[in-house]
Amino acid sequence: MLLWGIGLGAQDSLLKAILVPVVPADKRSTAFGLFDSGFGIAWFLGSWLMGILYSRSLSALILFSVVLQLLSVPLFLYARRVQSAATS
Asked: Which of 60, 55, 8 lies closest to 36, judged by CA?
């Protein structure tokens, strides 16, 4: 639970630090709200699917989790490239 709290706090701080220079001040609350809504929906759907997979096959749950983690790597690499191009 401690690690989950640290991760969520770091993510929230990072999101604010990234969005503040990009989103105009009058649109920030909307941007944060949209992000949090999408995050919550994705979290619910992922947890729901993982619960179904857990009840049917532990191997399928592990495979699902690993595949999604690996699919996120290109997204992070792309975001890093875009961020470094924006700061250059």
From this structure: 8
Contact call for residues 25 and 5 (beta carbons, < 8 A): no
Cα torsion at 38, 41, 46, 49 (round to 10°)? Answer: -150
- Residue range(s) defining the domain that contains residue 63: 2-87
Residue 18 to residues 2, 15, 50, 83, Cα–Cα distance (Å): 24, 5, 30, 9
pTM: 0.68
Q: What is the Cα 5 distance to its own chain's centre?
A: 15
Q: Are 40 and 49 a contacting pair, CB within 8 Å?
A: no
Q: How many domains does the chain have?
A: 1
Per-residue model confidence as pLDDT tens digits over 49-59: 999 999 999 99
